[in-house]
Amino acid sequence: MNEPKYRRVLLKISGEALAGDAHRGLNFDVIGSVCDVVKQCVEAGVQVGIVVGGGNFWRGIKDGGDRMERTRADQMGMLATVINCLALADSLEQRGVEVRVQTAIEMTRIAEPYIRGRAIRHLEKGRVVIFGCGTGNPFFSTDTGAVLRAAEINADAILLAKNVDGVYSDDPAKNPDAVKFDEITYDEVLARHLMVMDSTATSLSMDNHIPIILFALKDPENILRVVMGEKIGTVVKEDK
């Protein structure tokens, strides 16, 4: 196997991706396939942090709408991410991968509180660290939480595994003429309001000079391909 291009990565997985075709709940075949590839990354010497969304259970303001106070709706979304964190942790452990779950909201009976130095130490020891509860604050997405953790652990790149295979000029599901970008700058993403991440997450990534590689999780092997330097999906960076 060739040497990995990235030595430390932050993998962001949407909650919906873990649900598979059902779009709700957990699909353990999908989770198992993802964990198989994460194990390969660890065996290749890559340090892996993971942030997972909670949209397969609850999507904060989108589900709460005008029926709930925004802060409480977002807090429910943070708790939803923990369910996914524990499912991933269990699946990884079944495969012999050492893993730690850290949460931005303390729940010490089931996870460690997030401590930057401890997280980095776990990564250095070859453990996968799964970060739950986003940033721990309402009004911020788990995408922003992923960029924040990537900056804090000094990740080489953010791997954005979604249900789409790259960044397009328009919604490819609605516009058959939408063009897929191989590379695009943060400034272009923000100026064109392209749906890579929300603007807060994109700006934070730009300010901290962390490249984002967006690709489809439909084939989990894409995670390993990206780590090894293969051109998959779209790279969002400072200069083309």
UniProtKB/TrEMBL annotation:
Species the sequence originates in: Faecousia intestinalis
Pathway: Pyrimidine metabolism; CTP biosynthesis via de novo pathway; UDP from UMP (UMPK route): step 1/1
Broad class of where this protein is predominantly found: cytoplasm
Pfam families linked: AA_kinase
Entry keyword set: ATP-binding, Cytoplasm, Kinase, Nucleotide-binding, Pyrimidine biosynthesis, Transferase
Name by which UniProt lists this protein: Uridylate kinase
Known regulation of activity: Inhibited by UTP.
Family, similarity comment: Belongs to the UMP kinase family.
UniProt superkingdom: Bacteria
Catalyses which reaction(s): UMP + ATP = UDP + ADP
EC number(s) on file: 2.7.4.22
Domain Aspartate/glutamate/uridylate kinase: 8-215
Oligomeric form and interacting partners: Homohexamer.
